[in-house]
DNA sequence: CCTCATTCCTGCGGGC
DNA sequence: TGCCCGCAGGAATGAG
């Protein structure tokens, strides 16, 4: 699943292959994928055609491509559960789940938005202070140079809920999904159901540090397997097979203490934790 | 204001 | 062999 590291890999790929190229046209093959764009496919096509992208930005799991000629406007891209942005040769067969195609004036690769489960999408938005209006409620992510560890830790402790819920709340700290939340909690030896209000600032800042570390490692590995020809956001990179300590390891030994990793239902999804290193809070 | 369950969507794999 | 069902989950939405 695309979380922050996967989205950042995509951002870099787009930056390298799509920035500065005049747009020849846009084909929306599946309107649902542009449902958040006002005016729909027609308006999207009208605005993008003849324009071009400036350097791509990212906050958490969102990325956006400011337009070169439409001052203050940007194309926002969210990958959802299964979205990919591919830079493909123009004569390559269409992918089964190709949703949007952006063609350029040259005959180099075109940009394709591919999304099986259609939770993702792309849409036009206005920038306010460089940030799309629809994502102003999204907090900075731990890889943002302006991310404030202490302020975020305090915001987390003010919440009246469990720690894993807050890690997944993009308005408090962004970029973390189910996988990296479990990884950060494992590294911190914290159970996801621990009440935030009973954690110390030290525990929470350390947890944020671990979230940053695990996402940085994932990004490094995603970066090495990422080869220049296309941007891939499939969570099944080498990173996922080798380096996860908790997520998806049900029944396998904890790499710290050997106890079998346990899987539990949480928030309509699965959580993975070590039953010995990450003790459940008293009820 | 705050928290939390529900909803969207489709391919895959297990069970029968 | 094939059908059904549960599961995967990011985030908008509305209920309470």
Keywords:
Helicase, Ruva Protein, domain 3; 4-stranded antiparallel β-sheet; about 280 residues; about 20% strand; DNA-binding; alpha+beta
CATH superfamily of the largest domain: MutM-like, N-terminal
Helix content: 25-40%
Helical segment count? 7
Uncertain regions spanning at least 5 consecutive residues: 224-231, 233-238
The rounded Rg comes to 20 Å
Strand order of the largest sheet: 2-3-4-8-9
- Strand and helix order: HEHEEEEEEEEHHHHHEE
Mean pLDDT: 90
Task: Give the end-to-end Cα distance, rounded to a whole number of Å.
Answer: 32 Å
CATH class of the largest domain: Alpha Beta
Major sheet details = 5 strands, antiparallel
What CATH calls the topology of the largest domain is N-terminal domain of MutM-like DNA repair proteins
Report the sheet-strand fraction. 15-25%
How many domains? The number is 2
Which secondary structure elements does this structure contain, and how are they paired or packed?
Blueprint: H1 4-17, E1 23-28, H2 40-48, E2 57-59, E3 62-66, E4 73-78, E5 83-88, E6 98-104, E7 110-115, E8 121-128, E9 131-132, H3 149-158, H4 163-167, H5 178-188, H6 201-225, H7 238-242, E10 262-266, E11 269-273
Antiparallel strand pairs: 1-6, 2-3, 3-4, 4-8, 5-7, 6-7, 8-9, 10-11
Helix pairs in contact: 1-6, 3-6, 5-6
This protein binds a DNA duplex (16 and 16 nucleotides) through loops.
